[in-house]
Amino acid sequence: MESKVIVALDLEDLREIEETVRELSILTKWFKIGYQMISSIGIKESVRIVKSFNCNVFLDMKLYDIPNTVARAIRNLTKLDIDMLTIHISGGSKMIKEALKSIDDGSDVKLLGVTLLTSFSKEEAKKIYNQDETIDVVKKFARIGYDMGLRGFVCSPHELKALKSEFSDCIFVVPGIRPSWSLKNDQERFATPYEAKLNGATYIVVGRPIIKPNNNLKPSYALKSIIEEFSK
Ligand SMILES: O=c1ccn([C@@H]2O[C@H](COP(=O)(O)O)[C@@H](O)[C@H]2O)c(=O)[nH]1
């Protein structure tokens, strides 16, 4: 069965990126390209590398701007050979509507709405959104996204179960994954691969525990152990 673990390629060096994809593409066919990689080697080169190993690209752009700007960016980005792309739901209903409209009918790109970043603690979410519980912020965003037509979300493992029961026809891509043996780093709302599986994740996204493991584990061993835990 194809692995549903997406490796976040938060790396900068071209050689290191190529070697990482070469080593890990034996175990998973999904890689996430984000700011760190594109700001060092560029979007087109990033996509080219992942595709050269016959793997799928999750382009995590987290687009957030006025509707016209986002729509035009999406029109360009979907000309690249990518499989999933993100926008911030907090960009608003109009932005989401234009974003969805700008994806060609013939394109298979799945547009995902980011709810609330996993690096937000309850206190931080309260400061910005004036809600006591992160679940209330996340549910509100997911409802807006769903009503505008989104059928895929990025959310933390903490709110996953509630979203899954309300939006059962959607896919859930879940970062903030920390196996028991790894550091939390800047993640605030996190859980183990097994917990994410139990709560209904379609895909999990994992970066540092695989590519920069704190215990000198080889990336391929770290990934193998995460795939096993997520498949239990
Ligand atoms: O809410 C979010 C949305 C995206 N991410 C991205 O996922 C990876 C996670 O990396 P780790 O090293 O496993 O923490 C990273 O690329 C983020 O940009 C997220 O963490 N939370």
Automatic annotation (TrEMBL):
A GO CC term assigned to this protein in UniProt: cytosol
Keywords attached to this entry: Decarboxylase, Lyase, Pyrimidine biosynthesis
EC number(s) on file: 4.1.1.23
GO biological process: 'de novo' pyrimidine nucleobase biosynthetic process; 'de novo' UMP biosynthetic process
Catalytic activity: orotidine 5'-phosphate + H(+) = UMP + CO2
Catalytic residue positions: 60, 62, 65
InterPro entries: Aldolase_TIM (IPR013785), OMPdecase (IPR014732), OMPdecase_AS (IPR018089), OMPdeCOase_dom (IPR001754), RibuloseP-bd_barrel (IPR011060)
GO molecular function list: orotidine-5'-phosphate decarboxylase activity
PROSITE patterns the UniProt entry points to: OMPDECASE
Domain Orotidine 5'-phosphate decarboxylase: 4-223
Positions that bind substrate: 10, 32, 118, 178, 187, 207-208
Pathway stated in the Swiss-Prot or TrEMBL entry: Pyrimidine metabolism; UMP biosynthesis via de novo pathway; UMP from orotate: step 2/2
Function field: Catalyzes the decarboxylation of orotidine 5'-monophosphate (OMP) to uridine 5'-monophosphate (UMP).
Membership in a protein family: Belongs to the OMP decarboxylase family.
UniProt protein name: Orotidine 5'-phosphate decarboxylase
Species name: Thermodesulfobium acidiphilum
